[in-house]
Amino acid sequence: MRTSILRSWLNGWIDKISMRDFLIRGVAGRAKLRFALCRSTNAVFQAVVYHDADPVAAELIGDAVTGAALSSVLLGEGEKLSIRWEYPGAAGITLADVNFAGDIRCCPGNPHLLGEVKSRADLFGVGDGNIAVTRSSDGRILNSGQSAAPLADLSLDLAFFYSVSDQVESGIKSIVELSPDPVKPVKTAGGLLIQALPDCDLEEFEEVRRRLESAELEEVLSRDVLGVDVWVREVLEALLKADFGDSEISYSYGADIGLRCSCSEEKMASALKLLSPEELEAAWSGRDELTVQCQFCGRRYTLRRR
């Protein structure tokens, strides 16, 4: 008994010291809902640093990366999900994608928003945005859909899309805590996705979904993870309240989430083929070599004219 307690405590401190990202997927059987829970601090940190994002853009990146990480539980083997948010305000377009293996990419439309934004209306604009989601496998589109993005929040609008377009009642809570330390600008990032299972009582689900915005749940999601099992239990207790004790909860680790780009010279060359002959000629502009840069990771490729 003492050995197992010590092992759990030690594993918890290893989790905290290494600050590794992780994804949990599970089911609350009696509540008839499934959930995904993640800590995405490292992935968000890497995306923020790469794009040299200011605090306003960093929060958008955090929501996009975390939303993508949580969405990986919805994929089958070999599948990829591409998400595109577009708002009429300064936020503009944000792109994120994730595959079954948990490889995440993110590209903000504008990483420098601080000087342009004085209010939420400036950031997201007046009127609805738009969100488009595409599921693919080996470059072949399996399905795609789009909906309005009326909630001026990347996480809430992604959940709105799943509820409206996929017709699966959903809720997402994303947390992004920033730090004034330029070396470590992201203190904590993570989130929680819930979706109703068949035969779920939708009135009860709506009550649970409202708790996603509670101060209690946000505080629990933001806590240091001293042990994954303890943290998961605390989050679900805050979410399910009195129903937690007999909720028939089961969960396991999901994909190994992380910011990892899949770009390659071959893919960059294929992208050029999408240009019209006039655009292609203008891009080469009489040169024998062309340098192209991945918008997600910044890697540069030198392509040679054939």
Describe this structure in words.
By secondary structure, the protein is α+β, with helices and mostly antiparallel strands. It folds into 2 domains: 13-259, Hsp33 domain (3-Layer(bab) Sandwich); 265-304, no CATH class. Helix content is 35%, strand content 30%. The chain has helices at residues 2-18, 41-50, 55-71, 120-124, 154-164, 202-210, 215-222, 228-240, 265-272, 277-284; strands at residues 22-28, 33-39, 79-86, 93-99, 103-108, 129-137, 140-149, 170-178, 186-196, 249-253, 258-259, 289-293, 300-304. The strands form 3 sheets. A 6-stranded mixed beta sheet has the order 7-6-3-4-5-11, covered by helices on one side. Strand 12 (289-293) and strand 13 form a beta hairpin. It is globular, with a radius of gyration of 21 Å. Residues 1-18 have low confidence and may be disordered.
User: Which blocks of ≥5 consecutive residues have pLDDT under 50?
Assistant: 1-18
Number of helices: 10
Major sheet strand order:
7-6-3-4-5-11
Question: Could you give me the name of the CATH homologous superfamily of the largest domain?
Answer: Hsp33 domain
The structure class reads alpha+beta
- CATH fold-level assignment of the largest domain: Hsp33 domain
CATH class of the largest domain: Alpha Beta
Task: Give the CA-based shape.
Answer: globular
Let me know the average pLDDT: 89
CATH architecture classification of the largest domain: 3-Layer(bab) Sandwich
- In percent terms, what proportion of residues is strand? 25-35%
Number of strands: 13
Spatial gap, N to C terminus: 68 Å
